[in-house]
Amino acid sequence: MTTVVKIGGARAVDPEGALADVASLVDDGEDVVLTHGGSTAVDETLEELGKEPTYVETPGGVVGRFTDEETMDVFKMVMPGRLNTDLVESLHNEGVDAVGLAGTDGKLLCGTRKSAVRVKEDGKKKIKRGDHSGKIESVNADLLETILAGGYTPVVSVPMLGKEKSGGYTAVNADADRAAAAIAGALEADLVVLTDVSGIYEDPDDESTTIDSASTPEEFEAVKDAAEGFMTKKVMAAEEALEGGAASVTVATANADEPITSALAGAGTTLEPGALADEHDADTEADE
Q1: In this UniProt entry, which residues are annotated as the site Transition state stabilizer (predicted)?
Q2: Structural domain tally of the chain?
Q3: pLDDT tens digits for range 228-276
């Protein structure tokens, strides 16, 4: 069984324990695909360049990044550049033969570009144009499986390859949680989403109310009702992963000695395929 791990990009996330844990799992003969976020690093770089990051709210109430051309240039520099390279370097220092990949490599992550997005501003629905984002519609699982079969550990970063109406392709932004979800679904893998909290809480301000698991539609509805803020996207991504064929999804803290091993053993909040109802109407507008 393959495990897909997503390390969050929040400032409070320390990847050290996760990287050591990846090394232990690989040493034990497990296949691991590592993915990562980086929104904080992108925002900090934009601010250093004198540009304010732009976030928008969809009509469905989900907040996401608006990626104009200048932001996309910074995104490409930071995500598959500095952050991915740093993780690959760290894994090599842990004894792991890591291979850095962008979603554009080998058409690893592909979909349709969205040049305009529906947003809600001042209570009104509007169309905001000039966006460089997309929704992942296909994953080159063969590429990942070939790399894994060769004894290497892929480290995957967005951007994805967005297909233009003209028929060409453009590198565009995609949500990192949903990218990890798409990969986990394509590989029928367990997905571990590591973040800066211990799981999904019934009370967002109280860690003691962590929801251990959801294995029925009723329990999953309770998880969705409990998710607020950034956790809303993670639950959305979890649902997409399970719909796509993932074996399980666990949301857990990255800030532990063996966060992946602990998550697979039951730490955090684990969502099972049985939690999905027969029909889904998840909001799909927040992929920027």
Answers
A1: 6, 234
A2: 1
A3: 988 999 999 999 999 999 999 999 999 999 999 999 999 999 999 999 9
